[in-house]
Amino acid sequence: MLNSIASLTSSTAAVDAVLGAVPVPGQYFSFTKIVFSLLAFGILARAMTWTDTDLARLHGRRTFWNAIVFLTGLLAVIVLLFVPNFLVALLLFVAVSSAGLGSYILQRNSLVAETDRVFTAAHLKKVLIGSGAKPAEKPLPLLELQIAIQQTNGAHVTAPDDELLQTGFQLAHFLLADALSQRATDVALIPSGQTTRLLHRIDGVTTERQRLSVQDSSALVSFIKYASKMDVAEKRVPQRGRLVVNSKGGLTPLWVSTSGSSAGERLDIKLLSKAQELTLDDLRLPADQLNKIRGLAGEPKGLVVVTGGRDCGTTTTLYAFLRSHDAYVQHIHSIETRPLTELENITQHKPKVSEGQIDTAGTLRSVLRGDPGVVLVELAKDAPTLKMMLQAAQSRKLYAGMSSSNTFAALSELMTLAGDPQLLSRSLKGIVAQKLMRKLCPTCREAYQPDSQLLGRLNLPVDKIKQFYRPPSKPLVDEKGKPIICFTCKGSGYFGRVGVFEILVVSDEVRELIKQDAGISQIKSVCRKKRMLYLQEQALRRVIEGLTSVNEVVRISKT
Ligand SMILES: [Zn+2]
Predict the structure, then answer these.
(1) What separation in Å is there between the alpha carbon of 549 and the centre of ligand 1?
(2) Rounded to 5 degrees, what are φ and ψ at 372?
(3) How many angstroms separate the Cα of 171 from the Cα of each of 139, 140, 166?
């Protein structure tokens, strides 16, 4: 066999015979054509996989762009296989396949941060020469969620004829769509050295979403200022504005504010939720507490105080109290520095400012002259306002917001500010203290058996409690063992918040003690005898129900 091959190759006539069987280049099956075709298919296949991975990473329109790249690729392959002149076929192949891929690259490059653009001079340099550290900024994700930015009068905000503002227009849409899909209630852009930190506040917890390049954040801040009718050139003096985002979920009002510092300009956006539209029944109170709250709302006159720190949901509860009154029958007024929403048939006043001071008492005095049936004072923290409220509460219904962290601290403050135990005892009907607790994600929460020591420390019956829940203790994986992120909570382990309440109802016994100016500890022990539960105990009830975790109770106890 070997000999026969050797004899064949050694013979010139045989070599000619073999070569004669291979078609010359340009004919249908040329060796060069096969090599080039395989190379071209290889590059095309690689480009398709890259497009798909890139789309997945950027949350782009995956089906749409994959289809474009695939169909143009298919067309290019047909051209390469069937156009007779190979050189023409190859040039057409490159042109057709680049059309699809090129359009995708142009589109994605226009939307991502500069450092994440591909096939730019900087990118090619990085690929060819290599770069040291990974860039700190990531692109803003391109989301499928379609939104429109509107002015408060409903007019759509369009991209102005300015390069910076046009970039900002696109980035602002991604920023807000991303914030909505993440359920963020606050978004902040804070300059920090060479980058800008993008922070989200979700369920009351602030986390860094990503870092942006200074160019991107400056385009964003400029556009948002332009859209909310602020002075774009003014970068130091604090400014405030309003916008509305129109999305599938409805309208979300935004409060926008900017302020300057030595590090640069900071932007804060508050996304207002539907929480302000809740009624008392929507607050998800346990039945016994709902009855107490309904009782307080049903009292025709007197003062009800709702107390809690910042971001505790007190405004939502105060609004829910107001909604329990018939606004067509009673004249309802509110005094609020920055109303969270417009309340139907309720006259909302902003407190007057006199000599640079907010004059809540002065505003209340003029509101009371109109003889209203119900009055809400969002924040009553000065003696003149409280005294006036207690007086007025003898013949009408008043609600006051305070900032003490529990009912007894609020009562103690009221006793000091009122300075009149008789008046306080006659007017005060009850105090509601509240905090907001994150709810465990229903998709990925994990059951576990709490140890008896913990139950003992929490004063809970060891024999009765079988399991508690907590966020997943191990990273989630799919059926193939690949790490995944929970679709519901995006990996935070929590989804949404629920209020937890401590309710002090002024019973006859408590009223008598207030009248006698008794100490808080004495009032406390009377309330405890009537089985009143503290805020933390109410929070633990929610742990037993599986609604939240022990860690969350600990976290809110510290705030
Ligand atoms: Zn989850």
Answers:
(1) 13
(2) -75, 160
(3) 10, 7, 9
Query: What does each C-alpha distance from 122 to 119, 158, 515 come to in angstroms?
Result: 8, 31, 77
Q: State in Å: Cα 56 to ligand 1 middle.
A: 20
Domains of the chain, residue spans: 14-111, 148-272, 276-438+497-558
> What's the CA-to-centroid distance between 63 and ligand 1, angstroms?
26
Centre of ligand 1 to C-alpha 486, Å, is: 5
| pLDDT (tens place) for every residue of the chain, 559 residues total | 444 444 444 444 444 544 444 444 445 567 777 787 788 888 888 888 888 877 766 656 778 888 888 898 888 888 888 888 888 888 888 888 888 888 888 877 766 555 567 887 777 776 666 544 444 444 444 445 678 898 888 888 888 888 899 999 989 999 999 999 888 999 999 999 889 999 999 988 899 999 999 999 999 999 999 999 999 999 999 999 999 998 877 889 999 999 988 888 999 999 987 766 788 888 888 999 999 999 999 999 999 999 998 888 899 999 999 999 998 888 999 999 888 878 888 999 999 988 888 899 999 999 999 999 999 999 999 999 999 999 999 999 999 999 999 999 999 999 999 999 999 999 999 999 999 999 999 889 999 998 888 888 777 888 888 899 999 998 888 888 888 888 888 888 999 888 999 999 999 999 999 999 999 999 999 999 998 999 999 999 999 999 999 999 999 888 7
Q: How far is ligand 1, taken at its centre, from the CA of residue 188, in Å?
A: 24
Provide CATH code, domain 276-438+497-558.
3.40.50.300
CA 342 / ligand 1 centre spacing (Å): 34
- Measure 472 CA to ligand 1 centroid, in angstroms: 8
- Ligand 1 center to 489 CA (angstroms): 4
Distance 439 CA to ligand 1 centre (A): 11
**Does the global pTM surpass 0.90?**
no
Cα–ligand 1 centroid distance for 476 (angstroms): 9
Nearest Cα residue to 162 out of 67, 75, 227, 69: 227
* φ, ψ dihedrals at 378, nearest 5°: -55, -40
Q: How far is the CA of 488 from the centre of ligand 1 (A)?
A: 5
DSSP per-residue letters across 302-359? EEEEEE--TTSSHHHHHHHHHHTS-TTTS-EEEE-SS-SSPPTT-EEEPPEEETTEEE
Distance from Cα 340 to the centre of ligand 1, integer Å = 29
User: Does domain 148-272 sit in CATH 1.10.510.10?
Assistant: no
CA of 485 to the centre of ligand 1 (A): 8
**Cα 183 to ligand 1 centroid, rounded to whole Å:** 13
Give the C-alpha separation, 318 to 305, whole Å.
Answer: 9
Q: For 419-549, where are the alpha helices, taking DSSP H only?
A: 421-427, 452-457, 508-515, 520-529, 535-544
Å from CA of 449 to ligand 1 middle? 20
Helix (H, G, I), strand (E, B) or coil at 50: helix
Distance of CA 202 from the midpoint of ligand 1 (Å) = 14
